[in-house]
Amino acid sequence: KAGVTQTPRYLIKTRGQQVTLSCSPISGHRSVSWYQQTPGQGLQFLFEYFSETQRNKGNFPGRFSGRQFSNSRSEMNVSTLELGDSALYLCASSFGLAGATGELFFGEGSRLTVL
Amino acid sequence: QKEVEQNSGPLSVPEGAIASLNCTYSDRGSQSFFWYRQYSGKSPELIMFIYSNGDKEDGRFTAQLNKASQYVSLLIRDSQPSDSATYLCAVDSSNTGKLIFGQGTTLQVKP
Predict the structure, then answer these.
(1) Residue A18 and residue A108: Cα distance in Å, rounded?
(2) How far apart are the first and last CA of chain A?
(3) Which CA distances in Å does B68 have to A18, A43, B25, B81, B89?
(4) Which chain A residues touch B98 with a CB distance below 8 Å?
(5) Is A42 within 8 Å of B102 (Cβ atoms)?
(6) Is residue B96 less than 8 Å (CB to CB) from chain A?
(7) Measured between CB atoms, which of A99, A107, A109 is closest to B97?
(8) Is the pLDDT of residue B109 over 70?
(9) Which of residues 36-55 of B touch A (CB under 8 A)?
(10) For the segment B19-77, what is each residue's pLDDT rounded down to a tens digit?
(11) β-bridge partners, B76
(12) Which ranges of chain A have pLDDT less than 70?
């Protein structure tokens, strides 16, 4: 059974640019959650999508957005990048809603560096 | 006050000792509690979950939950160097259904 796939794995952008990250969940999983991980803040919840609908959103500015497609694949976008957006972005899939099942399967992450 | 709090450590224990990792949470309505392990450079993976007050054992791991004190812990018996990792506590939010993670505790098991 294939795991959660995130692309790209590494990317470097400059301030003001935008970036799109992709996540393909485990087959059959309908929920995709996104987290930002930094050494100082730990795992910060960005949003969760279930059946193409955003079910929860974390405390991030509107520059952070996401969507989910009918095949459960998800993308997140960050516009007008800032230096502080440098982080590891983790995608996690689950069969049901994350808070209900708690069993998240994480991808390897996309490491974003903003210069 | 953070929703889920953990001591970042590092917690250093000798091989064969018991490692005790602690987590407190603020939402009294939370019902589900999870422990994830994250090796350096890797992604988190679920190792334990607990829903009821008391202890839950799985091999060398024991999760303990005290809802009255809003406290959940993970005990690792006979700690091995391979247990060296960051342990993340996660709690469901009763209001939003989100899964909220603590900052994690780094455990170092010394041979």
Answers:
(1) 21
(2) 37
(3) 46, 26, 11, 34, 18
(4) 45, 48, 56, 58, 98-99
(5) yes
(6) yes
(7) A99
(8) yes
(9) 36, 42-46, 49
(10) 999 999 999 999 999 999 999 999 999 999 999 999 999 999 999 999 999 999 999 99
(11) B19, B61
(12) 1
